[in-house]
Amino acid sequence: MFAVAPSALAAGYRLEAHESVGSTNALALERAREGEPDKLWVVAAQQTGGRGRRGRPWATPPGNLAATLLIKETPDAATAATLGFVAGLALGDALSAVVPTAKVALGVDGADAGRSRFELKWPNDVLADGAKLSGILLESSMLEGDRLALAIGIGVNVVSHPEDVPYPATSLSRLGAKADAGELFLALSDAWVDNMRLWNGGRGLAVIRERWLKRAAGLGSAVSVRVDGRVVRGIFETIDEACRFVIREDDGSRLRIAAGDVHFGAVASAHA
């Protein structure tokens, strides 16, 4: 069912595929501790013990995609963390490749016509028509010799999506797409190679940032961010050179946020 793209094979990527696992991230880090080399994709069509940010459960019923890439050759923890943005871009590219009619026209005046259906929500979600389609979770483990093993987990709602969540969610099936998890993963493994080449060990982060901002959800709109036990409201202005979220508060001051829960528009007020 699963296979890596020829471009990924040529670049040295390998595949460990399963019908069902507890957590692809946990399994990838286990493989790292066992001495598995860099560039291993651990993929499953079902995940029974997956989780999202802050330990929240992430269900992967049969037919959805749970994929984790094990990376061990990273310069440092801060630079490695920016691979989450590479993952978002790679998934966005893969979705655009396998899903037809990936453009939507919004607004009475057509100002947003042609904008990609798939947008990137800081720091780690992929939205489709404003609803959550995918989540990305980075987890790490220190190995002998102070080496860092990084698991880049990507979960995608392919055939189904959760109903009992406090935010809009969707799936490829609901969008009318016919692609299955195997087709999406093939495209993802190919798109990853291109975006990883642009990232270039962190030296190309400026290029990644520029590409990410072109797909950013909510850019220029009202947001609230819950961080360190308080809620900050303002305008989502940009992400900075370190990919931190930059919010312009009502008094004109700018706050750079490294981690937090972001809500847009009316949802921002409801969650604040």
From TrEMBL:
Database matches in SUPFAM superfamilies: C-terminal domain of transcriptional repressors, Class II aaRS and biotin synthetases
Say which enzyme class the record assigns.
Answer: ligase
Keyword terms, alphabetized: ATP-binding, Biotin, Ligase, Nucleotide-binding
What EC designation does it have? Answer: 6.3.4.15
**For the BPL/LPL catalytic domain, which residue ranges apply?**
1-200
Q: Which reaction does it catalyse?
A: biotin + L-lysyl-[protein] + ATP = N(6)-biotinyl-L-lysyl-[protein] + AMP + diphosphate + H(+)
Q: Which Pfam families match?
A: BPL_C, BPL_LplA_LipB
Which molecular function GO terms apply here?
A: biotin--[biotin carboxyl-carrier protein] ligase activity
Identify this protein by name.
biotin--[biotin carboxyl-carrier protein] ligase
According to its UniProt entry, this protein's organism is: Chelativorans salis
